[in-house]
Amino acid sequence: MIPRYSRAEMAALWAPETKFRIWFEIEAHACDAMADLGLIPAEAARAVWERGAFEVDRIDAIEREVKHDVIAFLTNVAEHVGP
User: Fold this and answer.
1) Higher confidence at residue 80 or residue 7?
2) Would you say 72 and 62 are in contact if contact means Cβ atoms under 8 Å apart?
3) Which of 2, 15, 66, 74 has a Cα at 20 to 30 A from 59?
């Protein structure tokens, strides 16, 4: 977005941090559902919520290497969550 044509509230909606926060919530809720179905351990889903985080700069660096935004995002979250 072009800052001079955007209100702060609107620019915040389109910020990378907002996008990745939403992606994180979707992934964490998906983990909860997979845990409910017995596809992953419940403690794994809990670990995503407790330790899951992301860094936009790190995601950008990973994406330059792997050429895929979602893989870069998930790789960075996994770096925070651990095994």
Assistant:
1) 80
2) yes
3) 2
Report the CATH number of the 15-81 domain. Answer: 1.10.275.10
Spans of all domains in the chain: 15-81
Q: Which residues are CB-contacts of 36 (< 8 A; sequence separation ≥ 6)? A: none
When pLDDT is cut at 50, 70 and 90, the band that residue 14 belongs to is confident
Are 57 and 31 spatial neighbours (Cβ–Cβ below 8 Å)? no
Cα torsion through 44, 79, 74, 29, rounded to 10 = 30
Contact between 3 and 24 under an 8 Å Cβ cutoff? The reply is: no
pTM comes to: 0.87
Q: Tell me the C-alpha distance between 43 and 60, whole Å.
A: 29
| Per-position DSSP letters for 21-64, written without gaps between them | HHHHHHHHHHHHHHHHTTSS-HHHHHHHHHH----HHHHHHHHH
In the numeric block, which tokens belong to residue 37? Answer: 């179905």
